[in-house]
Amino acid sequence: MRRNYYTAALLVILLLAISFFVEPLAVLNPYNGVWSVTVNSGYRSMVLNIPGLYQPVNITIDSTGLAHISAANDHDLFFAQGFYVAANRLDQMELQAIMASGNLSKYVGPSGIASDKTVMLLGLPKYAYSLEKDIQQQYPQYYSLIQDFSEGVNAYINSTFFSDPLVLKLAGIEPFKWTPYYSFVWQEYMSWTLTTGGKEPLMYSLMYSSLGFNSTLQIWPYYPYYSEQVTVLPGDGEINNYSLSAQGIEPSYLWSLNWMDQWATGVNTSLLKQLRPLLKEALQNISDPYFASPDMGSNSWVIASSFSCSGSPLLANDPHLPLYIPSLWIPMQLQDTSFNVTGWNLVGVPGILIGHTTSTAWGLTTPEGNSANDYLEILNGTSYLYDGKRLPMQSVNYTLDGKEFTVYYTNNGPLIARNSNYGISLSWPGAELPSYDLIAEIMLDNSTTYSEMLNALRFWGVPPQNFALVSKDHAGYITAGRYPLINETLPDNKTVMVIGSRSILNGSVSNWEPEGFVPFKFLPQSEDNPRGYMFAPNQPTVGQDYPYPFVGGFWASGGRAQVIYHYLSAKQCVTINDMESLQSNITDYWASQLTPLLIKEIHAMNMNDLEQKAFTYLSDWNYTADEGSVGMTLYWYITSEIDNMTYAKIYQENNLQGLPLPFISTTIYLAYNYPDSQWFNYNFTNIAREAFTKAVDLLSTNLGDNVSSWTWGRVHMLEIHSLSGLQALSIGPLPIWGDDHTLSVGSTSHELIVPEPYVTVGSSLRFIASPALQQFLGVFPGGPSNNPISYYYSNQLQAWLDHQYFSLANGQIIARWHLE
Amino acid sequence: MNKTNLVIVVISAALCYIALIISPYAWGGLIASLPLFIIKPARAFVAGFSVGLATSISLFIAYPMASLLSLASLIGRIINLSPYIVIVIYPLFFAIIVGLSASLWSTIYRIFRPVGG
């Protein structure tokens, strides 16, 4: 009897011991666990009974993974879009919404707190809420479509046909109900991510306060070196017969001024020096550590009828974004009695953001001119100084990780950093006025002519974007969106409205407050430009005579613009094949300019055998960044060593580590024109030779002495992360072509490590369109599905790597979903 | 195995399926093992373990094998386990719970059953 008691006690103890494993193992339950996702690993034809539809909807999925959604009315179309996107990307949608709403830490724990704090500090959830209310009241017809999309998402969540996504199952998270707010908050988040002007004036204030005006301007000129020929808007900047000159201001005078001086910013230079810790804190506070947003570029160009071999306008676009798996995009066609649009949906937001109708097509790139501004505030407790008066700051309270967190607001916007009686506030049109980007997008989706596209873009707010537009007979650009204007009084007492600032502005007086926006008529734009082509890969938008000077213009170096310009200007006319070839181009223009000088400097030095072999590879290099190139590897590490011995050293001496190093075009300009510059320790020849020796040494130490094996693909690799953060769901590392300046981009940072940090940002999709020829091609580095064991998780990746395209029109149907 | 034992094993197996379907947690095995109290403790463990393992493993038949293995391999990379262990670990724990609890019910029954019964 007693033995039975002992046995029972022992069994209870054993069961209790096992209990520790029961909960974590639930995810592997053969019925309720993750395994049910194996059933959804491929698309299959289904008839689905979905409450909420007015009439049946057909979704056919083709072999490229593009879904063709065909409905009888707009309600059903947007409803079905929501259903289809959720069926493929629910986990991604919800994670993005959680992140953009500042709720990440509730799901991922303390590692999400910094991200939540950034989102709350910026006020994105608050602005999304206001935007939703505004659109609901002002544009109910568009709001209802956004609501239909949400209903479709919820219909998927409530359906029992599909298993919950793997990531949600692994995390043990039940999907939450989708509302239009989540679409708006993701729009706000992406808008902020692509906004210029939040971080840049802070960085330039730091540089200016340390290096002074001349040195800062030498390495960061207002217009990057060699950019005169390659502005988005060809010419000197005049727009609709309006220019700086027309206002009686000489561009050469305006651009010779110190725009970081007190007359331009209201901030004393010596005070700026004291504020360095505050500037650094502000920079850190507005950078979301969870969603990497390094400097991103994008490419687009259009060919007018006059320059197209077929006489039909052409368009190419490849927006560069963080590459995630699944992608931020999902391809589809939406078709009903009013819409017939095909392209890429930004997951979580209704409609098609980049794509084409039967007679129009459009693409987007970021213009890199300030649409946000940073202000220095003088504080006292919870009040701030404004035009001599003390005004109370507004505040919004949040609870984060059980602790209260208050965001204060001045008249300029949220206080993003504070140090005693000084603070930095952020002024952003996305916060101050509703940004009807979603309305613009839906209008583009329904456009039939060039002028309808232009009209749609009157609604576009933030961030300003270069819109490449083509219809059957017209091609052009407009940089649409809200550029806040600041009224500046120049040292010669003339006044001019400028866009943005070079460093932080004085917020304690009204002088530097934004006064309206660039009028639509004077936004940079051109239709059927006489040159026959235009391009917008983040280079300066306009020439120096533009009537509203882009003082806050933080342009890309223009290397990709140079490739496009030289390629197109050498052509008599352009075909679709040329467009593909150009989009696949991996020639580094800057390398073609710098390498001959490097070779000249290096060839006379004494070299050992290894260096001699490396030098031969460098000399024979054709400036293309293909995976097999040894010359590219050498060039990359030589220029990295140059950066390290020059700018990085001076940055370090001035406590500027972490700020972006000058462009390679600056090195080229200085090396040719000022080889005895302080930046090169007064001797570029020595710098070039030392950099070569160090690069060869670094590569031989890490890759061995066989120089022929120092291929670019060994040191330059792509990794496409899962937004969930789970490494096993990521793709790569894979050897990859390109660098920061090649059109087919493969950006990585110039680190002196082998291999380089993985490429994680790139062409998030490639699109070529000709509505007149009815040719629409595209590819993106992923697939529609979020199921990692599905072929459609990454079915387009190899084609993307190989620079191949799929037709967006005629894929073979592999599955039909009949929704009724 | 006599007829009674066969019947209770079948009932227990049915309860195992219900437990596995209605709850993701393996604690359902505690209920599913109840009918096995009639069997002596050592045999109850064997019977419970076998029923628990067989029923939970059999549920995998519902899934395409190739997809199942690829998913197991993926999960294995996430949690650092071999794909085969990923597949069998839940059934194994479920089987142990059914076995141990069957043995427990059997022991308790023997403690409290009427003298001479």
Structural overview:
The complex is a heterodimer of chains A (820) and B (117). Chain A contains 26 helices and 31 strands. By secondary structure, chain A is an alpha+beta fold. Chain A has a domain at 595-715: Orthogonal Bundle (Penicillin amidase (Acylase) alpha subunit, N-terminal domain). In chain A, a hairpin with a 4-residue loop joins β28 and β29. The radius of gyration of chain A is 28 Å and the shape is globular. The mean pLDDT of chain A is 95. Chain B has a domain at 3-61 and 91-112. Chain B is built from 5 helices and no strands. Chain B is an all-alpha fold and 117 residues long. In chain B, α1 crosses α3. The chains are: A alpha+beta (820), B mainly alpha (117). At the A-B interface, α1 of A face α3, α4 and α5 of B.
Strands, helices and their partners?
The complex is a heterodimer of chains A (820) and B (117).
Chain A: H1 2-25, E1 46-48, E2 57-62, E3 67-70, H2 74-100, H3 104-108, H4 113-122, H5 124-138, H6 140-158, H7 166-171, H8 180-193, H9 200-219, H10 251-254, H11 262-265, H12 269-274, H13 276-285, E4 298-303, E5 314-322, E6 329-335, E7 340-346, E8 354-356, E9 360-365, E10 373-380, E11 383-386, E12 389-392, E13 394-400, E14 403-410, E15 413-419, E16 422-427, H14 429-432, H15 437-445, H16 450-456, E17 465-471, E18 475-480, E19 484-489, E20 495-499, E21 505-506, E22 514-517, E23 525-527, E24 533-535, H17 559-569, H18 576-583, H19 589-603, H20 609-620, H21 630-645, H22 647-653, H23 664-673, H24 684-703, H25 712-715, E25 717-720, E26 731-735, E27 761-763, E28 766-770, E29 775-779, H26 797-801, E30 806-807, E31 813-819
Parallel strand pairs in A: 1-31, 3-6, 10-21
Antiparallel strand pairs in A: 2-3, 2-31, 4-5, 4-24, 5-27, 5-28, 6-7, 7-8, 8-9, 9-17, 10-11, 10-16, 11-12, 13-14, 14-15, 15-16, 17-18, 18-23, 19-20, 19-22, 25-26, 28-29, 29-30
Chain B: H1 3-22, H2 28-32, H3 41-58, H4 65-79, H5 83-112
Helix pairs in contact in B: 1-3, 3-5, 4-5
